């Protein structure tokens, strides 16, 4: 097991290298540079700026310089936010995004799984239709509609919760964004759980278990839950990625200082170092998440062995 | 436990059998009919409305729905008929949904089934590739692609399709991993059936349940992804539009001109609801184990 | 709408219902429209950065509540007869927030630093009127040769290249702020971070959480600190205007520096006391590509396009927040200048369309050979709406418009490379003078995206800059502008307005054409 984890982590290195390489060159290919804006800089100054960020070097040299700095843990200065280094920006933003995302995933599981199970057990009942109808509404409405709507209703009309801001993670500030971020995932998880539960309940080994005269409770908890969870666990990797993407919108709408917004902003600003910083960071995070998902998967399904 | 012959029959009569059962599912059939009507409306509808796609009614900016003026669903901030634009937008949204989902379905199912079935080093390599793809931030890639190649509808198809197959392949692989140790696969193998046949005949049909459920999730996701891109200002170019573009325009106006949000949202929600019921119906019809 | 109050003596207040005046910390909460790139006055170029930095620093000259220029660090000054030598007497009680005296040397140091090519300050060109500034900035001369000199600790002499009537105005701009030499030399470029920053304005920096909030508190060393009512100001960077509006409505902020135009009707109905708009020193225009090979190289085509744009429809129906239709390139309200109007201003819509059709026919376009145009605009809800409307207005002329929307960096890159027929642009005055606008149309200027070039125009602009008499200078510039308007050098659409949401309890917030509001003048009424 440990051997397997170590091996996977080692494999992450070439993965990240490819991610870095592709992103680096793609980004430098894109038209427009970090100093292009409404005002044209005098040529001399632009040259000065480019030189001070090594942007006047041939691209392969810039790439090597970047890799060298990265190995020393130096993400470089942000082109856009000059009073902060990329490390500082990510260091300040990531805990916020992490907290937001963790709560959203937890909420999605805590609500989605039971809903899916209940719907599966009461298949075709009015509860099933209610749950699935609601879940569908959760999928059918984009989060950039739900988020401002919630801000309007709970923040402005009812004035129960703050409309925006982070306030160092106060629960009142966190509630709306977490809910807005998780709604879609709740809906997905509930639907997946229902579908896979129904499938498992119809399978041979459950029929056998029932035939043995086990109580319904035992059948579900002992025999049906674990296999039924598998597709949901598979989905956790993509769900996490979805949460990160979703946080781009949610962080923007609620004014939350996470790193989600850098994905878009930094790319639009051609803030090369910040883009690369978030890309590397995000890549590492996803690799780690996938590893965790695989480990949970193997824990749930003893048929899969990571012996090779 | 499944037997080899039981699984074998699945592939044979899948189509006809499934269709028969689907027809018995009233919700699914109603949804199918609505979806067909919707599609036809989006294609033919714009000729029937009194206004053109980018035709400006200089007397009706942000006007509420009015039968007398011929703006059955109101107008947008530029005085363009919302119904007409919603129908045109449907063309884009539906085509993105269909094309991108098909791309993701074909690539993802084949890829996942092969990886899961082959196992070992091949699986490892293939999944590593998926990991790499995952680790590339989607948003960033799409933004760069849009910037590099200009904003084109084909690019939106490709970008979304290229991302969605990853999920599909993981799910199919997970299913296949569990399935391939089942007796019917072992039996088929013992009978000397080729890998190719096992994958196509035995594994893929048995993963269809979760796959179809996932497709019914993917289609709305694709439509939503497209709208997400629109929200970030990376959607289709004016004067063309999509439900995503229309909804994101409407969001800013939800208090002052609610119809701008409600009309395209209604189209989107109706489509997604119907897709859902159809998906469930298909799942029931296709799943060999519910027999 | 109420201010956030910190009850420092709340327990006392609770004990006695009779105690009606607890000590309060007055905090102003402002939504600024973006995250500052830096708080170093030499490294910024955005209006949202000006909001913060302008509260932290004070130049030789500063802005009153209504935007009028009043003495700042300089108590008085003398200008030589030829208008090229300024001698400033600095006030004795000007202090940095760490207690050090603000000296003439701090200004010399600041000017030399911002114009030093190594600093790569992108806004430094505003100081070009100073003698040798341009050569220093371009690296051809030593910073020591700059026309600024500390005669003694409290006397500063600035020498200009030539008489510049708007120079005093410019001295209130952040490019001309002093920087604390003793701190910058100690910490280098890190001096502007919250743990090192020392400033000389009414407020001093306390904390900066990136993307979240910037907190400043009253600077007790400030010479006018007794008159500063606020104890603290918190700036929230919020790019989404709808979010800013919602937070304003939820009473989480007191001032929003912009609001969504599409909400204007709602705002006027529901928050009439808080919604303010005012003329702003800016022009929204379409630049027409005059390079060879573009249909817009033909002045007749340009004029026809301009004639067909119904500006009133755009200002009243598309935008509708008090913008004025533009028939000149220089906005009204600019100091010492009366902008000439384009001749089409007096024509009726029918006359304009008839003339436009004539002109297009003369230029060789018609039903068989329609004019095809590529219209570029950068991503923004308002830009999109305007582009769509203008595209529709050109339709009756038989013009086929292809709309092309891209993000800012790509948009301006394409504009500079001339890859467009018609392109969206806007200009907000760096300083309140017509020259700042008209220079955009001079041959070879970087921001002259359409590459408009007219020798006579250039000659007039040169002549104006050599002219000392203000009236005569204005006449020459007006002649130049008339020339550009007659040739439809650009297509002016509307004059900007500034939009703010302001807590009605706030005193001392006055609209002005530059939309500059320093927190030192603001207070809550009690």
Automatic annotation (TrEMBL), chain A:
The keyword Membrane applies. GO terms for cellular component: plasma membrane. Gene3D superfamilies: MetI-like (1.10.3720.10). It comes from the Bacteria. It is a multi-pass membrane protein. It is found in: Cell membrane. Residues 94-297 form the ABC transmembrane type-1 domain. One of its GO terms (biological process) is transmembrane transport. The chain crosses the membrane at residues 12-30, 100-121, 133-161, 173-190, 232-254, 274-297. InterPro entries: BPD_transp_1_N, MetI-like, MetI-like_sf. Keywords: Cell membrane, Membrane, Transmembrane, Transmembrane helix, Transport. Belongs to the binding-protein-dependent transport system permease family. PANTHER family: DIPEPTIDE TRANSPORT SYSTEM PERMEASE PROTEIN DPPB-RELATED (PTHR43163), DIPEPTIDE-TRANSPORT INTEGRAL MEMBRANE PROTEIN ABC TRANSPORTER DPPB-RELATED (PTHR43163:SF7). This is Oligopeptide transport system permease protein. It comes from Aidingimonas halophila.
UniProtKB/TrEMBL annotation, chain B:
Residues 90-279 form the ABC transmembrane type-1 domain. It holds the Pfam family OppC_N. InterPro entries: BP-dependent_transpt_permease (IPR050366), MetI-like (IPR000515), MetI-like_sf (IPR035906), OppC_N (IPR025966). The chain crosses the membrane at residues 27-48, 92-117, 129-148, 154-172, 211-236, 256-279. The keyword tRNA-binding does not apply. GO terms for cellular component: plasma membrane. Belongs to the binding-protein-dependent transport system permease family. OppBC subfamily. GO terms for biological process: peptide transport; protein transport; transmembrane transport. Keywords: Cell inner membrane, Cell membrane, Membrane, Peptide transport, Protein transport, Transmembrane, Transmembrane helix, Transport. It is a multi-pass membrane protein. It is found in: Cell inner membrane; Cell membrane. It comes from the Bacteria. This is Oligopeptide transport system permease protein OppC. The keyword Transport applies. It comes from Aidingimonas halophila.
Automatic annotation (TrEMBL), chain C:
GO terms for cellular component: ATP-binding cassette (ABC) transporter complex; outer membrane-bounded periplasmic space. It comes from Aidingimonas halophila. Its main location: other. It is found in: Cell envelope. Residues 1-25 form the signal peptide. Residues 70-445 form the Solute-binding protein family domain. PANTHER family: PERIPLASMIC BINDING COMPONENT OF ABC TRANSPORTER, PERIPLASMIC OLIGOPEPTIDE-BINDING PROTEIN-RELATED. GO terms for biological process: peptide transport. Belongs to the bacterial solute-binding protein 5 family. One of its GO terms (molecular function) is peptide transmembrane transporter activity. This is Oligopeptide transport system substrate-binding protein. Keywords: Signal, Transport. Coiled coil: none annotated.
């Amino acid at each position: 097991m440990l051997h397997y984890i170590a091996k996977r982590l080692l494999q992450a290195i070439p993965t990240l290298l490819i991610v870095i390489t592709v992103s680096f060159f793609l980004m430098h290919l894109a038209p427009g540079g970090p100093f292009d804006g409404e005002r044209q800089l005098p040529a001399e100054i632009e040259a000065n700026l480019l030189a001070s960020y090594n942007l006047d070097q041939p691209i392969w040299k810039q790439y090597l310089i970047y890799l060298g700095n990265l190995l020393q843990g130096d993400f470089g200065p942000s082109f856009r936010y000059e009073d902060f280094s990329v490390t500082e920006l990510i260091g300040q933003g990531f805990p916020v995004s992490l907290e937001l995302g963790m709560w959203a995933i937890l909420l999605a599981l805590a609500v989605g799984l039971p809903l899916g199970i209940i719907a599966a057990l009461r298949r075709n009942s009015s509860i099933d239709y209610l749950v699935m109808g609601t879940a569908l509404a959760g999928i059918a409405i984009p989060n950039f509609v739900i988020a401002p709507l919630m801000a309007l209703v709970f923040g402005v009309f009812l004035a129960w919760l703050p409309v925006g801001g982070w306030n160092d993670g106060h629960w009142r500030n966190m509630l709306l964004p977490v809910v807005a971020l998780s709604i879609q995932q709740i809906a997905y998880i509930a639907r997946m759980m229902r579908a896979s539960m129904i499938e498992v309940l119809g399978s041979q080994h459950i029929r056998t278990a029932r035939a043995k005269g086990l109580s319904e409770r035992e059948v579900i908890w002992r025999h049906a839950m674990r296999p039924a969870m598998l597709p949901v666990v598979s989905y956790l990797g993509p769900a996490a990625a979805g949460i990160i993407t979703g946080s781009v919108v949610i962080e923007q709408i609620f004014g939350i200082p996470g790193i989600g917004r850098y994905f878009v902003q930094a790319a639009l600003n051609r803030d090369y170092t910040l883009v690369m910083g978030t890309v590397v960071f995000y890549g590492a995070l996803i690799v780690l998440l996938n590893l965790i998902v695989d480990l949970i998967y193997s824990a749930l399904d003893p048929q899969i062995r990571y012996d090779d | 436990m499944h037997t080899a012959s039981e699984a074998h029959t699945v592939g044979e009569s899948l189509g006809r059998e499934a269709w028969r059962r689907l027809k018995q599912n009233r919700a699914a059939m109603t949804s199918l009919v609505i979806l067909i009507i919707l599609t036809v409306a989006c294609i033919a509808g714009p000729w029937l409305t009194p206004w053109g796609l980018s035709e400006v009614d200089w007397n009706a900016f942000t006007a509420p729905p009015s039968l007398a003026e011929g703006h059955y669903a109101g107008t947008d901030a530029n005085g363009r008929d919302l119904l007409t634009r919603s129908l045109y937008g449907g063309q884009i949204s539906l085509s993105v949904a269909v094309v991108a989902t098909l791309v993701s379905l074909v690539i993802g199912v084949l890829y996942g089934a092969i990886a899961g079935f082959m196992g070992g080093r091949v699986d490892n390599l293939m999944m590593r590739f998926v990991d790499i793809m995952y680790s590339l931030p989607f948003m960033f890639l799409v933004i760069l692609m849009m910037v590099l190649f200009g904003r084109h509808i084909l690019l939106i198809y490709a970008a979304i399709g290229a991302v969605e197959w990853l999920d599909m392949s993981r799910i199919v692989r997970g299913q296949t991993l569990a399935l391939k140790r089942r007796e019917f696969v072992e039996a088929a193998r013992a009978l000397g059936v080729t890998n190719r046949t096992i994958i196509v005949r035995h594994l893929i049909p048995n993963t269809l349940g979760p796959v179809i459920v996932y497709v019914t999730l993917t289609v709305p996701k694709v439509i939503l992804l497209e709208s997400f891109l629109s929200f970030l200002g990376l959607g289709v170019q004016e004067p063309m539009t999509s439900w995503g573009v229309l909804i994101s325009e409407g969001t800013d106006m939800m208090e002052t001109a609610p119809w701008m949000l409600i009309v395209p949202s209604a189209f989107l929600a109706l489509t997604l609801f119907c897709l859902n019921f159809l998906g469930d119906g298909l799942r029931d019809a296709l799943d060999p184990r519910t027999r | 709408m109420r201010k956030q109050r910190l009850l420092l003596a709340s327990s006392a207040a609770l004990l006695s219902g009779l105690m009606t005046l607890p000590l309060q910390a007055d905090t102003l909460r402002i939504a600024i429209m973006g995250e500052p790139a830096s708080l170093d006055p030499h490294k910024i170029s955005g209006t949202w950065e000006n909001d913060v930095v302008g509260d932290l620093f004070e130049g030789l000259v500063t802005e009153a509540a209504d935007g009028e220029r009043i003495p700042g660090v300089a108590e008085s000054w003398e200008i030589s007869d030829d208008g090229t030598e300024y001698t400033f007497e600095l006030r004795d009680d000007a202090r940095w927030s760490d207690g050090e005296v603000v000296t003439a040397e701090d200004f010399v140091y600041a000017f030399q630093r911002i114009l030093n090519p190594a600093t790569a300050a992108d806004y430094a060109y505003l100081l070009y009127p100073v003698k040798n500034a341009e050569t220093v900035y371009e690296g051809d001369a030593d910073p020591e040769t700059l026309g600024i000199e500390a005669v003694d600790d409290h006397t500063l002499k600035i020498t200009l290249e030539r008489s510049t009537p708007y120079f005093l105005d410019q001295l209130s701009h952040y490019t001309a702020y002093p920087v604390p030499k003793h701190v910058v030399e100690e910490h280098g470029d890190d001096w502007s971070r919250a743990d090192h920053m020392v400033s000389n304005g009414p407020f001093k920096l306390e904390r900066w959480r990136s993307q979240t909030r910037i907190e400043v508190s009253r600077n007790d060393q400030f010479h006018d600190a007794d008159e500063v009512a606020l104890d603290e100001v918190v700036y929230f960077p919020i790019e989404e205007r709808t979010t800013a509006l919602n937070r304003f409505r939820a009473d989480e902020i007191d001032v929003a520096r912009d609001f969504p135009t599409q909400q204007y009707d709602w705002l006027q109905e529901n928050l009439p006391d808080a919604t303010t708009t005012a003329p702003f020193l800016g022009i929204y225009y379409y630049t027409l590509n005059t390079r060879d090979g573009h249909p817009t190289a033909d002045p007749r085509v340009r004029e026809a396009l301009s004639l067909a744009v119904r500006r009133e429809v755009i200002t009243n129906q598309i935008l509708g927040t008090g913008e004025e239709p533009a028939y000149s390139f220089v906005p009204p309200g600019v100091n010492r200048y009366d902008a000439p109007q384009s001749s089409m201003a007096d024509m009726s819509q029918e006359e304009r369309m008839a003339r436009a059709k004539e002109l297009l026919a003369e230029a060789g376009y018609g039903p068989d050979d329609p004019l095809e145009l590529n219209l570029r605009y950068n991503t923004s809800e308002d830009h999109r709406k305007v582009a769509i409307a203008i595209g529709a207005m050109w339709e009756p002329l038989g013009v086929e418009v292809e709309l092309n929307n891209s993000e800012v960096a790509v948009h301006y890159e394409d504009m500079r490379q001339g890859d467009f027929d018609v392109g969206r642009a806007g200009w907000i005055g760096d300083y309140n003078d017509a020259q700042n606008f008209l220079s955009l149309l001079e041959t070879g200027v970087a921001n002259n995206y359409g590459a408009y070039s007219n020798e006579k125009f250039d000659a007039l602009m040169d002549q104006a800059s050599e002219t000392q008499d203000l009236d005569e200078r204005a006449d020459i510039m007006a002649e130049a502008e008339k020339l550009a308007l007659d040739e439809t050098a650009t297509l002016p659409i509307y004059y900007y307005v500034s939009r703010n949401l302001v807590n009605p309890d706030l005193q001392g917030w006055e609209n002005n054409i530059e939309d500059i509001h320093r927190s030192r003048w603001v207070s809550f009424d009690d």
